[in-house]
Design brief:
It is a single chain. This protein has a domain of 78 residues. Helices cover 38% and strands 8% of the residues. The chain contains four helices and two strands; from the N terminus they run E-H-E-H-H-H. It is globular, with a radius of gyration of 14 Å.
């Protein structure tokens, strides 16, 4: 998966993930699995399980936060969806890149959820 070149990323910055102590990595869905968002992505032609990236577990917990609603990551997607109900896939992928930048996610390559690491 190659994301297009983005510009104009939002000013808000989440603390960087590269300052963490070594630990476990988890697959992070770029496009959230929450039922309301998953249905929207599917309707827009985006297959959520095709785009994950390994990130440190601590980062995964931080961006999704407590409370069971997906935290800041899912909230950012909900705000985007509410502003851009009819977004084209290109706009959705562009916003994904902006979020990866905003949340300063440093991880491995983007790959399908069901692939083996290094496959």
């Amino acid at each position: 998966m190659v994301f297009p070149n983005w510009s104009g990323a939002p000013q808000q910055v989440i603390p960087p993930s590269h300052r963490l102590t070594p630990g476990r990595w988890e697959k992070h869905h770029i496009f959230p699995q929450a039922e309301d968002l998953a249905r929207w992505f599917e309707g827009r032609g985006v297959k959520i399980h095709d785009y994950t990236m390994p990130i440190p577990r601590e980062v995964h917990r931080r961006i999704h936060g407590p409370g069971g609603n997906g935290g800041a990551w899912n909230n950012a997607w909900r705000e985007f969806r509410d502003r851009k109900q009819n977004a084209r896939p290109e706009e959705i992928f562009r916003f994904a890149g902006e979020l990866i930048h905003r949340f300063e996610l440093i991880g491995g390559p983007i790959q399908p959820y069901y692939s083996r690491p290094g496959a």
